[in-house]
């Protein structure tokens, strides 16, 4: 039988370890990136991007195929996040909504690239090759996937974009 004193010590140890783990997680999350990811889980490219964002420690949100509802609803203050880089892999409609709201609030689209019909067919809508990687590095993201967006964009119509 466990003595009351041993039981209390074990409980205190668990509490301390839980607080310590939370502090370590918070400091890692707060210091790891200053970026936020939007993705469309209904797209295989969006799912890949969500996994990448998770691996590199980014906060992320599924657009649910309705970027306007998300950005005017629960995330209505997203443009107020000073110094945050916003990245997304979405469809064209969500991209245009996000870029319009960003523009209205003084943000700028740094780069956007869309997969066209062919396997080697990328179209730069804003910016140029290298713009995504430079924006990522400036914000503390270390990922080669943004240097070569063709690896993230497999399906025609998918757009990888970045705004600040």
From TrEMBL:
Signal peptide (from-to): 1-29
Entry keywords, A to Z: Signal
Domain of life: Bacteria
Name of the featured protein: Twin-arginine translocation signal domain-containing protein
Organism, scientific name: Altericroceibacterium endophyticum
């Amino acid at each position: 039988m466990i003595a009351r004193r041993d039981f209390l010590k074990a409980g205190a140890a668990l509490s301390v370890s839980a607080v310590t783990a939370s502090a370590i997680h918070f400091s890692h999350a707060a210091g790891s990136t200053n970026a936020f990811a939007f993705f469309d889980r209904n797209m295989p490219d969006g799912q890949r991007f969500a996994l990448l964002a998770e691996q590199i420690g980014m906060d992320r949100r599924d657009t649910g195929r309705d970027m306007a509802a998300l950005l005017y609803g629960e995330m209505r203050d997203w443009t107020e996040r000073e110094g945050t880089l916003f990245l997304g892999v979405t469809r064209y409609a969500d991209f245009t909504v996000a870029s319009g709201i960003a523009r209205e609030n003084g943000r700028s689209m740094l780069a956007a690239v869309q997969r066209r019909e062919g396997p080697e067919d990328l179209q730069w809508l804003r910016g140029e090759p290298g713009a995504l990687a430079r924006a990522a590095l400036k914000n503390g993201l270390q990922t080669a996937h943004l240097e070569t967006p063709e690896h993230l964009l497999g399906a025609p119509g998918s757009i990888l974009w970045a705004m600040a």
